Amino acid sequence: xxxIFAYINYLVPQQRKAILETLINGLKRLEYRGxxxxxxxxxxxxxxxxxxxxxxxxxxxxGKVRALEEEIYSKDDLNLDLEYDIHxxxxxxxxxxxxxxxxxxxxxxRSDANNQFIVVHNGIITNYKDIKTFLESKGHEFESxxxxxxxxxxxxYLYNTRDDAKMSFRELVxxxxxxxxxxxxxxxxxIHYPGECVATRRGSxxxxxxxxxxxxxxxxxxxxxxxxxxxx
Length: 232
Hints:
23% helix; globular
């Protein structure tokens, strides 16, 4: 069974090393679910000038989370001291259902070579073959055997063909899931919507946690605190 994990630090400065440690620790807490590979996606670039323009970076590894961790820290081209005021990172442990255990079949899955859209997925998309056939007819090429890759390429297709140039990330994801059949929990990241993460579910579980110095309110997600009368 796959596990997904995402982390956003919003107006809370964090170094890339701390962000990666949070993602890795999140994956370690999901190891009990069983898996054969793991991966993370973070913002690209190695200095504050090119971080926003660089494609997100995906690091994936077959085997245990520990192997992924070693792969991350063995990279010479990864500035771990780079600091972000706002950053979205997503991570995944995969249990192979479509395609053999391998780095290419691991998540996160990407929309294209420039990593414009990236997704992690727990569940099964039952109509992925139909979507794949449609996308191939539009010129999209697939590199993995997974059902998840169709989601990443579908969101890129819908982004490129959208009528409203001001369409939000949430609205775009809503259009994507309308085309999907099956059970899923998903988390999306995109260079076109920096610092944003959209998570959605149908059938599969999804838990959202918020940590803040002060109590937060939201019109979209009900937030309950210990001792809140609404939580009685």
